[in-house]
Amino acid sequence: MEQPIKILIVEDEMIIAANISLQLTNLGYEVTGIIPRGEEALIHIKKNKPDILLLDIQLKGTIDGIEMAQIMQQDYNIPIIYLTANTDDAHFEKAKTTNPHAFISKPFKKLDLQHAIELTLHNIQKDDLAVKSDPINNLDPFVLSDCIFVRHHDKMVKVAICNILYIEAERNYCRIYSKTKEYLLVMTLKDLDEKLPTNLFLRIHRSFIVNISHIDEIATRHVVISKKAIPLSKSLKEELLNRLHTI
């Protein structure tokens, strides 16, 4: 079953945010949260990364929407749709530096919201096709005994296997989380799982492979790696425990 598109709403006017959430739910999207402040939204994204970010430019708090987007983009490439009431030229030019996919002016109609999201999804798919058409992006990772070569921007870079914390599935992509960086691979989690050394890596959930040497905690339904809670499938927990006994 295809998973719904996940959207995070960052809006400090709760009545507007609740109305947007209702409209998105009726359109078949999954709302991961309604967050009033940019600082809180950055924390939320680390725990539950959305596919699209609906972001009010003029937020209350220590950072506004544009500043929040700039901080987020240091670690994540999440498409942004800005929500705005009255934006002057200076704010508009500043917002453009974050390469948003759309602007929606308040007050807006349901159709405005729907069209902005559909346009964003169309652009994402177009970008995906462009990535896949680049020959270097079609290269599979090279897995050696102590490292893996993966595509990063326009080149292949070496990532030490000991530095890989975990890997998360993102539709037909995989995102490798290392101690210092993230790498997006154009391949499925299943294909990558078949290439990784089985003595170190284990798929513990349909969307996650972990480096078992980096597990800090094991709970009933999740494990913790570097303060990140990763879901643990009940059917795979016994295998994980057996593997840990053999290390």
Automatic annotation (TrEMBL):
Residues of the Response regulatory domain: 6-121
Coiled-coil portions: none
Classification via SMART domains: LytTR, REC
Phosphoprotein as UniProt keyword: yes
InterPro entries hit by this protein: Bact_response_regulator (IPR050595), CheY-like_superfamily (IPR011006), LytTR_DNA-bd_dom (IPR007492), Sig_transdc_resp-reg_receiver (IPR001789)
Superkingdom of source: Bacteria
Keyword terms of this UniProt record: Phosphoprotein
Protein name per the record: LytR/AlgR family response regulator transcription factor
Residues with PTM 4-aspartylphosphate: 56
HTH LytTR-type domain: residues covered: 148-218
UniProt xrefs under Pfam families: LytTR, Response_reg
